[in-house]
């Protein structure tokens, strides 16, 4: 079935672009939270793979990203990003009310998903967190960070380049060129949002109180953008209910790597093991 576009308005009045990749008689649904600078339609091929295995997907573009409205790379409050994930869950449950719901976050989306799980304690069957920003694989430019901190409240919408090294996205030929030519991709980050993300990453890097839903945390060992060891250490601090999967030699976008079929099959197996983690009472007919 073809992807179905829809939208909602957030509390700021911004129109949020969203898409459903539907499956007749689906076994479960995945809610997708995309990474920094990108948008949900970069996951069309991943969605098609899970669709072929009976899993529906629903995704959205964060405000200021992709096809959604809003200043590029900006949220007045970090909480707005968390609220978007809460609305994504509502959309998943509304479309698939009697099915297991999983949330899937990659990179910045994985970072936001971890914060959402810790703060909101959602009633879901589990979460897949791919290459999250807990620590970076490189040292951010201290001058740019310092400027961001100074301007965070004085000039919160001051915009810089996010300095994403697109060579480190994937080893698959064509991914870098396609990413750079994509009109819905941007490299913008504002002073307030950039510092909010760095500070929340620092909190994740210290967090040790556990997560109360099953979590699959995955990271490529050769990720040059977000730190594999940051994820490994997070898993060691929060072992209960958390499965850590390390992928040797893989870069940042596990879903776009040459070995992506192996990644998809591993995730599918984990989803199937956790589909009964949350029991939902079927609606009366």
From TrEMBL:
InterPro entries: AB_hydrolase_fold, Hydrolase_4, MAG_DAG_Lipase. SUPFAM superfamilies: alpha/beta-Hydrolases (SSF53474). Coiled coil: none annotated. Residues 25-259 form the Serine aminopeptidase S33 domain. Transmembrane segments: none annotated. Pfam families: Hydrolase_4 (PF12146). This is Lysophospholipase. It comes from Neolewinella aurantiaca.
């Amino acid at each position: 079935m073809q992807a179905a576009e829809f939208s909602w308005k957030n509390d700021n009045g911004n129109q949020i672009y969203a898409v459903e990749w539907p499956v007749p008689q689906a076994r479960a649904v995945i809610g997708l939270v995309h990474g920094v600078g990108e948008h949900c339609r970069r996951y069309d091929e991943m969605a098609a793979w899970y669709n072929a295995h009976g899993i529906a997907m629903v995704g959205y573009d964060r405000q200021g990203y992709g096809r959604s409205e809003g200043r590029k790379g900006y949220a007045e409050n970090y909480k707005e990003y968390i609220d978007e994930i809460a609305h994504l869950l509502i959309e998943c449950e509304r479309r698939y009310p009697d099915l297991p719901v999983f949330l899937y976050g990659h990179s910045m989306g994985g970072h936001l998903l971890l914060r959402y799980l810790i703060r909101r304690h959602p009633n879901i069957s589990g979460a897949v967190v791919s290459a999250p920003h807990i620590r970076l694989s490189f040292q951010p430019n201290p001058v740019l960070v310092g400027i961001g901190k100074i301007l965070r409240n004085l000039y919160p919408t001051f915009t810089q380049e996010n300095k994403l090294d697109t060579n480190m996205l994937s080893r698959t030929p064509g991914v870098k060129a396609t990413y750079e030519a994509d009109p819905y991709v941007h490299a913008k980050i504002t002073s307030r949002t950039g510092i909010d993300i760095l500070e929340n990453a620092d909190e994740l890097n210290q967090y040790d109180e556990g997560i109360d839903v099953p979590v699959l945390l995955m990271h490529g060992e050769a990720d040059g953008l977000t730190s594999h060891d940051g994820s490994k250490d997070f898993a060691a601090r929060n072992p209960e209910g958390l499965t850590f999967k390390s992928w040797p030699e893989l870069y940042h976008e596990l879903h776009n790597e040459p070995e992506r079929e192996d990644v998809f099959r591993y995730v599918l197996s984990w989803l199937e093991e956790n589909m009964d983690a949350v029991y939902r009472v079927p609606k009366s007919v």
